[in-house]
Structure formats: structure tokens, C-alpha cells
Design a protein that fits this description.
This protein has one domain. Helix content is about 15%, strand content about 35%. It is built from 4 helices and 15 strands. It is globular, with a radius of gyration of 17 Å.
Length: about 220
């Protein structure tokens, strides 16, 4: 261990992120956020099945009232890692909000201006360029994890909206194990975790109201 690392750990530091505001965040079109479903297919966040499957590795919920928080995750005793959050969306410009309480400390994360309709706020690391029709070979997945300049990444094409990047490309959620394995940013909690979400407007579309989180508890 290097001297710098020794100093970090001896001072009570951690290699994990404990402040959600330090995590990657961007807004993606609901039809461009996906997770791997089987060896040859993925699910998109504009379909209900996305949230059924995200709950296998975390939790999912549904907002029922505009501008009112709904609890997505509530771990009252235990430690682990919070990996990704996916907000609800709306058919008009709106403001999504995350309230993340880690070990009793609450953090509110929201754009300072409305974002475009059909976008979902995504907190945590994602892979760019995962196709929506088939799975990628493992070597290609690694390339996408480490290459932000792929064709699916919008890059520096537009200014931030309310402090958040509006990504035009396709992104994929990674399993908690992949995030930890590749050393990507993840939130560490030691005693408790609560995740709440809301949207400033309530959509008439059922899937727009759905939202989710991925996390892993320590064994």
C-alpha cells in the first residue's frame, strides 16, 4: 500500500463514496435506458418489465401524487452498497428529485430547472452504447465501460440543464457485482439506507410513474 493510501485509511477515509452528490448523474431518454434481461436481450425503462427486473437486484416503486416523495428503498439495519437510481418521468417538462438518506444523513438531489419530457434522471455509473436488441461480448462491454467517446455518448454537444447533462445516447445499467468488480463509483452505507423519489408532475402513463434502485447488502 502506498504512503498516500496508508494516510487515507489511517485518517478514517474510505475508497467508497459516502456523499451521493459526488456520484455520476445524467438524464437519459426513457426509451434509451436498458438493463440486460437474458443472454441476448435487454429491457428498456419505458416498459414495466424493466422495473420488475430491477427489483431483483434492488427495489422498484411507483409515485402516486405529484411533488410527493415515495419510498423506494428502506434498509433500517444493515450495510452495503447503493449503485444506481432511475427516476420517474413525465410527458411534459418536469423536475425529478432523489432524497437519499445514508446512515441518518439526508441528501436531496434534483436539477435546478425542469428537464425535458421523457427523460429519466440516472444516478450512478452506466455503460454507453449497449444495443437494445442483443447482448455484447464481454470484451466489448469492457471497452464501453472505459471508453466514454463511443458513438452513443453525446459528449460535449449541449450545455447542462439545471446542472445535469442531457445525454442523447443509449446507456445500460450494470449489476451491483459488475460495478464493484470494475471499481466504478458506488455509495457505501454502514448502518441504514433510505431512498425516496418524486416528480413535480404526475403522468397519466403508468410506466412513467415507475422508478427504481439497485443495491447490494453485505453478506
Amino acid at each position: 500500500m502506498s504512503g498516500t493510501q496508508s494516510a487515507l485509511f489511517s485518517a478514517g477515509g474510505s475508497r467508497w463514496i459516502t456523499n451521493p452528490k459526488h456520484m455520476p448523474i445524467a438524464a437519459f431518454a426513457s426509451g434509451r435506458i436498458n438493463l440486460k434481461y437474458t443472454a441476448g436481450s435487454v429491457l428498456l425503462s419505458d416498459a414495466a418489465g424493466f422495473y420488475t427486473n430491477i427489483a431483483y437486484r434492488g427495489a422498484a416503486s411507483v409515485i402516486t401524487v405529484a411533488a410527493t416523495l415515495v419510498t423506494v428503498v428502506n434498509v433500517t439495519s444493515g450495510s452495503g452498497f447503493l449503485c444506481n437510481l432511475v427516476s420517474p418521468t413525465h410527458t411534459a417538462a418536469f423536475t425529478p428529485t432523489f432524497v437519499i438518506t445514508i446512515d441518518g444523513v439526508a441528501y436531496t438531489i434534483a436539477p435546478s430547472a425542469t428537464i425535458a419530457s421523457g427523460k429519466r434522471l440516472v444516478l450512478g455509473p452506466v455503460s454507453y452504447g449497449i444495443p437494445t436488441t442483443a447482448a455484447l461480448a464481454s470484451a466489448t462491454l469492457v471497452d464501453h465501460l472505459h471508453d466514454g467517446n463511443c458513438a452513443a455518448d453525446a459528449g460535449f454537444s449541449a450545455a447542462l440543464t439545471g446542472g445535469v447533462a442531457m445525454a442523447d445516447g443509449t446507456c445500460g445499467l450494470l449489476t451491483p457485482e459488475a460495478i464493484i468488480n470494475f471499481g466504478l463509483p458506488t455509495l457505501r452505507f454502514e448502518q441504514s439506507l433510505k431512498v425516496e423519489m418524486m416528480a413535480s408532475l404526475l403522468s397519466v402513463n403508468a410506466v412513467d410513474k415507475q422508478c427504481g434502485a439497485t443495491y447490494r447488502l453485505d453478506l
